[in-house]
Amino acid sequence: GPCFAFLSASFSVSYSREEEENSFTRTNHQSTEFYCTLLNPRWYYATSAPLLGLSWLVTLKDILGVEPVKLDKDELKEKVKQSWLYRKHGKYTEAVQVLEIALEETKQRNEPLPMTRVYDELANTYYEMGNLEDAMTHFQVVVNRLIHLHGKRDSDQEFIGISLKMADILARKGQLDDAETGYSHCVRKQMQVVDEHMKKHSVAHGALAQDRYMVDTLGPIFTDPIALFGMALERFAHFLVTYRDETRLREAEEYMDEVMKISYQIYGANSFHTINLLGNFGAALIFKNRFELAIKYLSIGIERILYVNECASMIPGYYCNYAEALFHVGRKAEALEWARKAVLLSKSEEPRIQQYAHKFLRDLEKDAKEKRQRSWWFF
Questions:
Q1: Going by C-beta distance under 8 Å and a sequence separation of 6 or more, which residues neighbour residue 224?
Q2: Which of 43, 44, 155, 375 pairs as cysteine with 189 (C-beta 3.0–4.6 A)?
Q3: Contact between residue 169 and residue 132 where contact means Cβ atoms under 8 Å apart
Q4: In the chain, what are the domains?
Q5: 8 A C-beta contact, residue 176 and residue 147
Q6: Quick one: average pLDDT of 204-220?
Q7: What are 285-337's pLDDT values in tens digits?
Q8: Are 300 and 278 in contact (CB under 8 A)?
Q9: CA dihedral 367, 368, 372, 375 (to 10 degrees)
């Protein structure tokens, strides 16, 4: 089955924060740990994150949503940091307990902004542990507080970031039309923000200023709204592939092509972010048996992944996914070749990656000899 890299957002929005808090932030975006989806128990590796295969499963603190605020009370700050560490190690019950205590402290002190921050941390903890009901309840609390207490609008990035997760929750609960409405809202609102953003910078820096120049000289001030638009498009594309039928596939492809343009603009073609985007979307397509389109995106990543040092541990899984897609479109000799390359390159990786690559190759060879369709798909 397709392997996904469980990594923090391919599009990341930058926030400044205190130096001492940096050491406590979740650093999944630097990790290249490699996981597989539960298509078949043979390919399952236990993980501490929900098995979604999405590149954006992170706390809003990390990329979007409630901007980190300075927690003046040391005890409260320490509790939030402790909850991050618990979440990092999959100890969600302990994280919730610590945050509940922190929430009571903010209520006693009547500190609205830190209280919103703790509600946000609770929402994301429930979200990561797969408790969708409590996650939705707490996200709704955060949204209401953002609007009524903190003066945020539905086009602000905090609101958009939370709305994307709420749309995902609705989709996973089977409320597909409501979920699509949420995704469409995020894309539409952020497109308007980006249009205004580009006009403003065009006036300030000249209409002929190159995007690359703006990225290099202005950094997050220029890229954050564009990155958030890319994320909204990426999430919508994944939704269409995962939950809608083939009549929406062309639309998903158009969105993802736009996502790749944005990724090239911000990060460059040979970047960890770009390779991760391609790999995750290719894997999502394989999961839904859209093999031809999976080949399109994985082949782009295949050409570049060897040039990106941070992607080294992803290579065996990338090659196996590519082999899987090739096999299903009848290109079996090529599929076997890529599976063998995966085994070769897995030798420098941890044992479970080596075992996965060897198991994948053995099964692929067996299926090729028997000249039958691979029967890994359970829907």
A1: 13, 14, 157
A2: 155
A3: yes
A4: 3-64+153-370 (1.25.40.10)
A5: no
A6: 59
A7: 999 999 999 999 999 999 999 999 999 999 999 999 999 999 999 999 999 99
A8: yes
A9: 40
